[in-house]
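User: I'm curious whether this sequence folds into something compact or stays loose and floppy. Could you predict its structure so I can see for myself?
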Amino acid sequence: MIEALQFDFMRNALLAGLLASVICGIMGTLVVVSRIVFLSGGIAHAAYGGIGLSSFFGWPYLPGTIGFSVGAAMIMAAVSHRLKHRADTIIGVIWALGMAIGIILVDLTPGYNVDLMSYLFGSILAVPRSDLYVMVIVGAIMVGLTTYYYQDLVAMSYDEEFAQIRGVPVRRLYFGLIVMLAVAVVLVIQVVGLILVIALLTIPPFIVEKYAKSLFQMMVGASLLGAVFTVAGLWLSYRYNLTSGASIILVAGVVFFLSLAIDKLRIAGGPGTQTVS
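Assistant: Here's the prediction. I'll summarize afterward.
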């Protein structure tokens, strides 16, 4: 792996993966504790509409996709906030409609069409340095906003009614969280693709949640674990000529199931197995 870092594209890929790990560590933790994994999946797949829109009109990928994704995310957030009993159905419709719009617009794009596989499974080896700067800026903004609103986010994530009683602007904070999530999803799509982005958002926080004593510890632990998955996945892809995004998620998935197995063994060897003297 060390010799691979002599190439610019590998250094960019490693930096993109590490930045994505920090972004996913922060946003993924909030997604898991706020129980909005399905909503984040809807945003990820609806983002394909933004990819198609950018391709059709010749816009830069990031602004076009972020704009479309934020719009779709606002609709999903409004629905999930007001009509919770129908949220999963409407999110599923927007999820499918966004992908359909994206595919049709890509089909209608004159000349060379975009490589669908690169967006479905990621193209971390092709992330340009300009996008790395964007990821640094967005990551810094997310860290700053999360730090500033940390106590409010903790209250909202664990008990929304209690947060409202405390005077937390829950509605405004919720919509702000969804906007950050939409931006994070678009950035991470470049690394692992829209099909696998939810895994990178949810697996590290899920594993760390059992050991973290606070939301902050969970964010830090998830970011570090995501970085380990990224480095290991990149090494596998370089060593065995595999797709990078899928390799990263493969490592994450293996560790996920190992953590479940360890939990079961721990429970099996718990107090229930002790003999009474």
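Summary: Confidence is low (pLDDT under 50) at residues 273-277. The chain has one domain: 3-267.
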